[in-house]
Design goal:
With 401 residues, the chain is an all-alpha fold. 79% of the residues lie in helices and 0% in strands. Helix 13 packs antiparallel against helix 14 and helix 14 runs antiparallel to helix 15. The protein starts with 20 loop residues before the first helix and ends in a 9-residue tail after the last helix.
């Protein structure tokens, strides 16, 4: 277990702030939902976005890669850089950066501007996600911390599975630019909610960059981060290109794809809450089940996904399994480093988003070089690797070893 001397101790004058409560928790969940929706938005829009900006689907997938890379870098760097700044204005400022990035994306006259916009989205996302994960304990009484933390994390999970179909539907109704405008407006609304509902949140402790890096070397933390890397990379190697996959394998039209992604999304929400309860009892058990189902389902897609009905069933099972990844891996890491919540969350966000970037990049290379069907086999192989690390690696003490 990492030693607490890697981090500066909490100042004695910092106490639980007055105010907050469940409305504040809801606002923070809204923030996590918005940042992850912003990140995922291009997935359901790759085809029209690429056509209008004059790039291939594999190149258009770099919009996800760049955002993930920026979030991966910004999360572990911003947390120490913020020092003792009050977290309320910091979160509001990051939501403003996110809104600006989405507005710039909506305006983009060419692909270079779109990539610049996605840099802003990545910075806002990495900072918000890293800070939000540890706020529940400061907003509600002790007996409510568990459910409040689950609600904050559910914003991440729900966005991961509903952001794509929502963007696809908005894009079909008003064009892909309208989808980005809509999410920019949502970010501004969440900013106002955070400003109105959060109490003052002075930093509890100063997180040092060296301590964050040393925490990553602790065996239980390192195992959890390895599981995150393999499962998330595998998922996004395949799922980033789900629209062209569905078009090629099942011949689905755009409206049908929107419906199929909605099926995936609803199943993913259910998977999030089911896996959250299972992970509270045994993070390893929950992640073994997730890895097994995820690998098998993705591998079966090109083999039996020729019919729309069949592919709908496979997408529902895919959603059920992947919907639990974020909450189960977060549970693993917080159990592995309970004395360093904010640092563990920063590492989690960095690896998670770096894995999104890597998955989108690998999937793009596979799609452009070998065809979109290959991305499914690649995703399944990586998910199987995540299953092996989960089963064999060192787990959190007293949490389903």
């Amino acid at each position: 277990m990492a030693q607490t001397e890697d981090f500066a101790q909490a100042s004695p004058e910092v106490a639980r702030p007055r105010g907050g409560g469940w409305p504040a928790v809801g606002a923070v969940a809204g923030a996590t939902f918005t940042v992850v929706t912003s990140e995922m938005l291009p997935v359901g829009l790759l085809t029209p976005l690429g056509e209008e900006l004059g790039v291939s689907e594999g190149t258009a997938g770099l919009t996800l890669t760049l955002t993930g890379l920026m979030a991966a870098v910004s999360a572990p760097l911003l947390t120490p850089a913020l020092g003792r700044f009050d977290r309320r204005p910091v979160l509001c400022g990051l939501m403003a950066v996110l809104s600006a990035g989405n507005l710039l994306a909506a305006w983009s006259p060419h692909f270079a501007v779109m990539m610049a916009a996605r840099v802003l989205v990545g910075v806002g996302m990495g900072g918000v996600w890293a800070l939000a994960a540890g706020l529940a304990v400061r907003l509600v009484p002790g007996r409510s911390v568990g459910p409040a933390t689950s609600l904050i994390f559910s914003g991440i999970a729900v966005a991961s599975v509903l952001g794509v179909p929502a963007g696809t539907y908005i894009g079909e109704l008003g064009g892909w630019r309208t989808a980005f405008f809509t999410v920019a407006g949502l970010a501004l609304l969440v900013l106002l909610a955070l400003a109105a509902l959060l109490p003052r949140l002075p930093a509890e402790r100063e997180v040092r960059l060296g301590g964050v890096l040393r925490l990553a070397g602790e065996p239980r933390v390192a195992t959890g981060l390895g599981v995150v890397a393999l499962l998330v990379t595998g998922h996004f190697a395949a799922y980033t290109y789900i629209r062209p996959v569905l078009e090629e394998i099942s011949g689905a039209s755009a409206p049908v794809i929107g419906t199929l992604l909605l099926v995936y999304g609803v199943a993913g929400v259910l998977g999030n809450f089911a896996s959250g309860a299972a992970a509270a009892r045994s993070p390893r058990g929950a992640l073994v089940a997730i890895g097994l189902v995820l690998a098998a389902t993705v591998a079966l897609m090109p083999l039996v996904g020729g019919l729309v009905v069949t592919v709908a069933v496979l997408l529902a099972v895919w959603g059920l399994s992947y919907g639990g990844v974020s909450v189960a891996t977060q549970t693993w890491l917080l159990a592995a480093a309970p004395e360093a919540r904010e640092a563990a969350s920063a590492l989690f966000v960095g690896v998670f988003n770096g894995s999104i970037a890597l998955g989108a990049l690998l999937g793009g290379q596979a799609a452009d070089g070998f065809g979109v069907e290959v991305v499914l086999y690649l995703g399944a192989a990586l998910a199987a690797g995540g299953l092996a690390v989960t089963a064999l690696g060192r787990g959190p003490a007293g949490a389903g070893r």
